[in-house]
Specification:
The complex is a heterodimer. Chain A is α+β, with helices and mostly antiparallel strands. Chain A has two domains: about 60 residues, no CATH class; about 80 residues, no CATH class. Chain A is built from four helices and eight strands; from the N terminus they run βαβαβαβββαββ. The longest helix of chain A has 14 residues. Chain A starts with 12 loop residues before the first strand and ends with a strand. Chain B has one domain. Chain B is globular, with a radius of gyration of 18 Å. The chains are: A alpha+beta, B alpha+beta. The interface between A and B is large, with 35 and 37 residues.
């Protein structure tokens, strides 16, 4: 990413809370990349056929959103000068309001709008369209058909993880709702 | 001499028992600070207004320092999903006294509810996985409480995988 200079281009829009609603997180399976999209669909269908319930909370998270969240915090807490924030194609935001106080206050309002309580990273499997956050319930002691056609009794979480894996949907054990194409 | 040794041993046992009991009475909790200055406590304990909390707070770079003593202001609707991964108990959110917005950094640290030691209590560990935060507390040297806060966005992981595996 190229860094901006202090001179703002006229078409850029100043930072502020109006940016928060832009580049929203998707909950649609259609926004996942193939073949992960199909794999997830088949896994969810198998769960639902078995009588389980799936609630999807996130699929695709645009890189633009991660960029805005990351630098909103960095500008607000003073760890980067607003004039030094790298630009991002497709995000015509001006972080520099002409004074540090105004720039940091605007960035702070963004961070509050995003509900940030811990510094966000720039990278995520969600930005690659290769991850899904979902809460699965009602499957304990039920049989779910795996990709090979075998009915697997779900006694433990690890049983469900193995079924997911058979469809190419891998569990990241450290984050309960998170599944991806490679387990990261 | 033998009597003195016996008394000394008994005193040590009583002191140790009291310390363990005190530790057992305190319950691990998350404390969250938003950039608007709002502070929230997440705990599996049902608390009343005025309940005593000992909590970490951030230094100027967001690193945890120990500790401040706070009192619960009241119940709060939770905006983050915090779950009890180990015992699957319900988790409650409580408002704590806020900070001036201009000085508030995003921060999540550890807190103890019902702790009697205010100076340097043994605080639970808080660390990050890819999309959430873990609060890990040992009890009697064994894995005890394990709370998880789902953030809804990616963060830089900091958890030791071996430590997390112990709490699985």
């Amino acid at each position: 990413m190229a860094t901006t200079t202090a001179a703002a281009t006229p078409r850029k829009e100043l930072s502020g809370p109006q940016w928060v609603a832009r580049f929203p997180t998707s909950t649609s399976l259609d926004d996942l990349a193939p073949p992960f999209r199909r794999n997830v669909g088949e896994f969810i269908s198998a769960i639902e056929v078995a009588g389980g319930t799936v609630r999807v909370s996130a699929t695709f998270r645009p890189r633009e959103r991660a960029y805005l969240m990351h630098y909103a915090v960095a500008v607000a807490d003073g760890s980067i000068a607003p004039s030094r924030v790298p630009s991002m194609a497709g995000v015509d935001i001006e972080w520099d309001h002409g004074s540090d106080d105004k720039s940091r206050a605007a960035a702070r309002r963004m961070a509050v709008g995003y509900d940030i309580v811990y510094p966000p990273s720039l990278d995520s499997r969600h930005s690659e369209r290769s991850a899904i956050d979902m809460t699965i319930s009602g499957v304990r002691n039920k049989k779910i058909r795996n990709a090979a056609g075998d009915d697997i009794q779900i006694k433990h979480d690890s049983d469900l993880h193995r079924v997911g894996s058979s469809y190419g949907v891998q569990k990241l054990r450290s984050d309960p709702p998170h599944w991806s194409d490679n387990g990261l | 001499m033998a009597f003195r040794t016996l008394v000394g041993t008994l005193a040590l046992i009583v002191a140790t028992t009291c310390a363990v009991a005190g530790e057992a009475r305190s319950s691990a909790a998350f404390i969250e600070l938003r950039m608007d200055g709002a502070r929230t406590l997440y705990t599996t304990q049902r608390l009343q207004r005025g309940a005593h909390v000992v909590a970490q707070y951030p230094d100027s770079r967001g690193r945890p320092l120990c500790c401040v003593s706070l009192k619960v202001l009241g119940a709060r609707a939770s905006s983050h999903r915090v779950s009890d991964l180990r015992f699957e108990r319900p988790v409650f959110a409580y408002a704590l006294p806020g900070l001036p917005a201009a000085s508030a950094l995003p921060f999540v640290g550890a807190a103890l509810v019902g702790s009697r030691s205010e100076r340097k209590p043994a605080m639970p560990t808080v660390c990050a996985s890819s999309e959430g935060l873990h609060l890990l507390q040992r009890s009697g040297g064994k894995p005890g409480a394990h709370l998880y806060m789902e953030l809804g966005y990616g963060v830089q992981p900091s958890c030791d995988e071996g430590l997390l595996a112990q709490f699985d």
